[in-house]
C-alpha cells in the first residue's frame, strides 16, 4: 500500500518509523514531514493545505492516509480524502470536534455522566467575569477552540482569572478560539495520558504514559508542547485502568456514537487521578506528542494493521500487544523555547535508534536546528529506571548550540515506584 502521513513533528517521525516496519507498506510519504525523516519521502505540502494534500494523494495513488495533527482533522481533511475514495486513519470533522471545541466536550461529558471538572461555558465577557465573584482559586480558564496547547490558564487569583478572560475574549490572543471560554474547577492529582485505538464500537487502550509539559525541571516554567514522556505511567494501576474503561473510555465512545459523531482513529484521554477518582482533563482526537514517542516503541504488533482495523471496523478481531518493558523520551529543544530561540545551528546526532526529529532542516549534508523542539531521544528497557538512564546516555551524545533539555524526565514516575 502507498501510505502518507500528514504532519511534520516528532510524533509523525515515530509514526513513520513504526509504519516502515509493516510488510504491507510500499511507498511511505510525509506531508510536509521534516528533513530528519529518512524513512519517508518528504513532500513540501503543509498539513493545513487540504486542497494540496487531496491533489497529491490522487496523483500519487495513495491507498491510506494517516492524519496526525489536530488542525487538519478539525478542518475536515479526513472527510475531503474520503470523498475522493481515499481511506484514512483519524476521525472525520464531526468527530474531531471532541478536541476542536472544549465547550462541546464538556457538554458531552455532562450529558453522559463522564467524570470531569465542574465548569461553566461563557460567550459573554462580562458574564464570565461576574461568575468569578466569590469563587475559590486557583480556577482554570480555557479557550474553547484549538490554541496550540496554550489555551489553558491556571489563575491563582481573581485578578489573574479576569486577565485570562480578557486576553481570550477581548484581545482574542487565540483568535476565534477564545470567543467562548470554559471556566472550570481546579483539580489535583497525577496526570495520565491514555491513547486508545477505536473503530467507533470497540476501544483498545495503548500502554499508558506521562507527559512533562513544563519547560523546566521540577515542573516549573512555561507550558510547552511537551519536554519528555515515560511509559507506562506507574500511577495508572490495573485497577484504575479498569475503572477508566468502565466510567470514561467506553462511555465516551458510546456517547459519540449516540450523537451521530462516531469516532474512529486514536482517541487521547488526558486524565487526572483526583482524590475522587479519575477525571477527564481533555480529549484529543489524535496521537499525543511526545507520548507517541514512548508508546509506539513498546508496540509489538503491526501499527498499520491496528490503524486499518479502526477504519474498517474490525478492531475487535485485531490483536494489539505491547511489550512488558518501559520507555523514556527526552526532548532536546532550542535554548529559549517556548519563547524566542535561535535557529540554523548544526546538529551533531551520532545516535539513530530511537531518535525522532521535529524542528530540523537540511543544508547540504548538514542537519540544522529549525524549531523549538528539535528532536526527541527514546530508549526502551525492561524497567523504567533503565529506560531513563539509557535515554539520558543517548541524549548526552547529541549536541548543538544552546541545546536544552530537562534533566528530570521520569523522576516523578520513579517516586511512586520507590514508595
Ligand atoms: P489541556 O490543554 O486541557 O491539556 O490543559 C493543559 C494542562 O493544564 C493540563 O495538562 C493540566 O496540567 C492543566 N489543567 C487543565 N485543566 C485543569 C483542571 N481542571 N485542573 C487542574 N489542572 C488543569
Ligand atoms: N502531549 C499533549 C498533546 O499531544 O496534546
Helix content range: 25-40%
The share of residues in extended strands comes to 25-35%
| Gap from first CA to last CA | 48 Å
- Number of helices, where a helix is a run of at least 4 consecutive DSSP H or I residues: 13
Write the layout of secondary structure elements.
Blueprint: E1 3-7, H1 10-20, E2 28-32, E3 41-42, H2 50-59, E4 64-67, H3 70-75, H4 77-83, E5 87-89, H5 93-100, H6 102-112, E6 119-122, H7 125-131, E7 139-143, E8 152-155, H8 158-169, E9 181-185, E10 191-198, E11 203-205, E12 210-211, E13 214-216, E14 220-223, E15 228-231, H9 238-258, E16 265-274, E17 277-284, H10 292-295, H11 303-312, E18 326-334, E19 355-357, E20 360-363, E21 366-369, E22 373-381, H12 384-396, E23 403-404, H13 411-418
Parallel strand pairs: 1-2, 1-4, 2-3, 4-5
Antiparallel strand pairs: 6-9, 7-8, 7-9, 10-11, 10-16, 12-15, 13-14, 15-18, 16-17, 18-22, 18-23, 19-22, 20-21
Provide the descriptors you would attach to this structure in a database record.
419 residues, alpha+beta, Rossmann fold, Dna Ligase, domain 1, D-amino Acid Aminotransferase, Chain A, domain 1, 4 domains, 6-stranded antiparallel sheet, 23 strands, globular, binds adenosine monophosphate, binds glycine
Structure notes:
- The chain is of the alpha+beta class.
- It folds into four domains: 3-90, Rossmann fold; 124-179, ATP-grasp fold, A domain (Dna Ligase, domain 1, 2-Layer Sandwich), CATH 3.30.1490; 191-317, D-amino Acid Aminotransferase, Chain A, domain 1, CATH 3.30.470.20; 326-417, Phosphoribosylglycinamide synthetase, C-terminal domain (Glycinamide Ribonucleotide Synthetase, Chain A, domain 4), CATH 3.90.600.
- It is 31% helix and 26% strand.
- It contains 13 helices and 23 strands.
- It has helices at residues 10-20, 50-59, 70-75, 77-83, 93-100, 102-112, 125-131, 158-169, 238-258, 292-295, 303-312, 384-396, 411-418, and strands at 3-7, 28-32, 41-42, 64-67, 87-89, 119-122, 139-143, 152-155, 181-185, 191-198, 203-205, 210-211, 214-216, 220-223, 228-231, 265-274, 277-284, 326-334, 355-357, 360-363, 366-369, 373-381, 403-404.
- The strands form six sheets. Strands 12, 15, 18, 19, 22 and 23 form a six-stranded antiparallel sheet that branches. The chain has a five-stranded parallel sheet with strand order 3-2-1-4-5, with helices on both faces.
- The longest helix is centred in the middle third of the chain and has 21 residues, at 238-258.
- The termini are far apart.
- The mean pLDDT is 96.
- The site of adenosine monophosphate (AMP) has 14 residues, from strand 8, strand 9 and strand 17.
Amino acid at each position: 500500500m502507498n501510505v502518507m502521513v500528514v504532519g511534520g513533528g516528532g510524533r509523525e517521525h515515530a509514526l513513520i518509523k513504526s509504519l516502515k516496519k509493516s510488510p504491507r507498506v510500499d511507498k511511505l510519504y510525509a506531508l510536509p514531514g521534516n528533513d530528519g525523516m529518512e524513512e519517508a519521502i518528504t513532500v513540501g505540502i503543509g498539513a493545513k493545505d487540504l486542497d494540496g494534500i487531496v491533489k497529491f494523494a490522487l496523483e500519487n495513488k495513495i491507498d491510506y492516509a494517516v492524519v496526525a495533527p489536530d488542525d487538519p482533522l478539525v478542518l475536515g481533511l479526513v472527510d475531503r480524502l474520503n470523498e475522493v475514495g481515499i481511506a484514512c486513519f483519524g476521525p472525520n470533522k464531526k468527530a474531531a470536534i471532541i478536541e476542536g471545541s472544549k465547550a462541546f466536550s464538556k457538554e458531552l461529558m455532562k450529558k453522559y455522566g463522564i467524570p470531569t471538572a465542574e465548569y461553566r461555558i461563557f460567550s459573554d465577557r462580562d458574564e464570565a467575569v461576574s461568575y468569578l465573584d466569590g469563587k475559590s482559586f486557583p480556577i482554570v480558564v480555557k479557550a474553547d477552540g484549538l490554541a496550540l496547547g496554550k489555551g489553558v490558564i491556571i489563575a491563582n487569583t481573581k485578578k489573574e482569572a479576569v486577565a485570562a478572560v480578557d486576553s481570550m475574549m477581548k484581545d482574542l490572543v487565540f483568535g476565534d478560539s477564545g470567543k467562548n471560554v470554559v471556566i472550570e474547577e481546579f483539580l489535583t492529582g497525577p496526570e495520565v495520558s491514555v491513547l486508545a485505538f477505536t473503530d467507533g464500537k470497540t476501544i483498545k487502550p495503548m500502554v499508558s504514559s506521562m507527559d512533562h509539559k513544563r519547560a523546566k525541571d521540577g515542573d516549573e516554567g512555561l507550558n510547552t508542547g511537551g519536554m519528555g514522556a515515560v511509559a507506562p505511567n506507574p500511577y495508572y494501576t490495573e485497577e484504575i485502568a479498569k475503572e477508566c474503561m468502565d466510567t470514561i473510555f467506553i462511555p465516551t465512545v458510546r456517547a459519540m456514537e449516540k450523537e451521530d459523531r462516531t469516532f474512529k482513529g486514536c482517541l487521547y484521554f488526558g486524565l487526572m487521578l483526583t482524590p475522587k477518582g479519575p477525571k477527564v482533563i481533555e480529549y484529543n482526537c489524535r496521537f499525543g506528542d511526545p507520548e507517541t514517542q514512548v508508546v509506539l516503541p513498546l508496540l509489538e504488533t503491526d501499527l498499520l494493521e491496528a490503524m486499518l482495523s479502526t477504519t474498517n471496523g474490525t478492531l475487535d478481531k485485531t490483536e494489539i500487544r505491547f511489550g512488558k518493558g518501559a520507555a523514556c523520551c527526552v526532548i532536546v529543544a532550542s535554548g529559549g523555547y517556548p519563547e524566542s530561540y535561535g535557529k540554523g545551528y548544526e546538529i551533531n546526532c551520532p545516535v539513530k535508534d530511537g531518535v525522532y526529529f521535529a524542528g530540523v532542516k537540511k543544508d547540504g549534508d548538514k542537519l540544522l536546528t529549525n524549531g523549538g523542539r528539535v528532536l526527541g531521544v527514546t530508549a526502551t528497557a525492561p524497567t523504567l529506571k533503565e529506560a531513563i538512564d539509557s535515554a539520558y546516555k543517548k541524549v548526552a551524545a547529541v549536541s548543538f548550540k544552546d541545546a536544552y533539555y530537562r534533566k528530570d524526565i521520569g523522576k516523578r514516575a520513579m517516586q511512586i515506584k520507590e514508595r
